Amino acid sequence: MTRSDLIKAINNRIPGLSEKDTDEAVRMLLKAMTDSLTSGRRIEIRGFGAFDLNLRPSRLGRNPRTGESVEVPAKFAVHFKPGKDMKDNVNRAAQNGVPNLSQKKSA
């Protein structure tokens, strides 16, 4: 689902909202979530899941072309842990048939 798909889904559920207002609300929500993670705070949405930061320590890597050792700096990675309700709903849907994975991009 893309942001525009989300906006359309919200507009279909709440017909009184303009697409412009829905777009602004979605943008504000995503900005608030980004700002929270950027400042090191955890995000928890009951029934949906939690977003947290994991610190990946610095390590010694290797340049694949030259074989030379290079220092890979420490960085943060965003981690998402789905909530119980979400896991239950996804698993229940999967029991009724395989979810549509045709849009999943191959690595």
Automatic annotation (TrEMBL):
Domain of life: Bacteria
Coiled coil: none
Compositionally biased spans, kind Polar residues: 92-107
Region of interest (Disordered), ranges: 83-107
Alphabetized Gene3D superfamilies for the sequence: IHF-like DNA-binding proteins (4.10.520.10)
Record-linked InterPro entries: Hist_DNA-bd, Histone-like_DNA-bd_CS, IHF-like_DNA-bd_dom_sf
Family: Belongs to the bacterial histone-like protein family.
Name assigned to this protein: Integration host factor subunit beta
Organism encoding this protein: Mesosutterella porci
Phylogenetic classification of the source organism: Bacteria, Pseudomonadati, Pseudomonadota, Betaproteobacteria, Burkholderiales
